[in-house]
Amino acid sequence: MMDPIRISVEGNSSKPTPSHFLRNVLIVAGIVAILGGIIYMIRTVRRFREHKHMLTRCRESGHAKILVMIHSYLDTAATVETIISALRTAYCPLRLRFAVYQEVANYNDDVFPMAMAYASTEEQRILNTTLRVITMDSNTTKGSIWAYQQLLQRANQGETYACILAPGVQLGTFWDKLLVDDSGKKQVLTMCPQRKKRLVINSNVSQTSVQRWMQSMSKNMQQTASNTSSIMTYPVFNQFNGWIPIVSQRAFSQPPRKPIRSIALSKYLLFGRSQLFQEALGTFDRPLAGYATDFAISTLFYEIGAMFYTVYNNKLASMQRVSPAPVCRPSGWDGKKLAKQWNRHPYLEFAGLDLKKHLISGRASLGLTPTFNRQEVEEKFGSWQEYERFKQSFH
User: Fold this and answer.
1) Domains plus CATH for the chain?
2) Alpha-carbon distance 180 to 60, whole Å?
């Protein structure tokens, strides 16, 4: 009788041996390291190419520098956002020179360290030599024109062009090239940026909030640079605030294809030869409320013979705020006294205003120059028939 055959099956243990576990860890780590190295190389090559392209653009742009002036009245975060936007979207960032007149209530709200904290390494290198900041107490403010005057005197280093930007303005792709190409010797370019929602930050937020804000800001700048709106506006006068006429805006019927003559300037964006800015703003020394800045700037530039043009590019800039800018009303501001001083100024006839009678003409409300012709009407209203329709609303 044969003995029974015994067959035993030894199951393999599902638990890996220490040597297998270590091998798997090393394989995964190697794959991660390789992927990380590839990503790093791609980013390095991309940065190198972008830097090379930027240097090429700067060589093509020549040696003309632009002094970018910002009056920051209790508005540090929005000012930083505008600086970073201008730097990242410029055709040649190396030709920009930033000058900020900051008026603060808390010395911790400083533009320079906040800008350096948000800038990339390359941007930090540029800002470290090109960002100049003048700091004053907010309770001693005299208004924006005084701030620009001080920047022109103390921060100007012979730049060919000057540009005024309001805190919160976001610039579009190659904004500097567009403005330089469109500018003339006695011309001042202006724009009333469209308003878009943005995330607000202050200096007391957490690091996570800062990172979210920066991500939001980056997305906003990309949208500003790539999106094109069909709406473009130009300056007009529609109402008085006390004794001072307020610059408003009216939409072009269709986006124009070239700079269009304007009757007023907007502090949100001004661009021209720096010599014009020095001549126009160099002697004004009285306190000025924020709401009167546009009217005062327009009067002062007209006084020196400058010609006003509205920028035609509809993706050049936008204003991104969720709340109005802080109200700047200096001690000693007297709108009635300023109106009395300027009630016979030649600019009033050019713009169609009467300060003594508190009158805004229909032409001023439509934004037409005194010698307007059919071409100007069609540029702003699309057709003569549309212009006649608008005229009827003033009768």
Assistant:
1) 62-331 (3.90.550.10)
2) 13
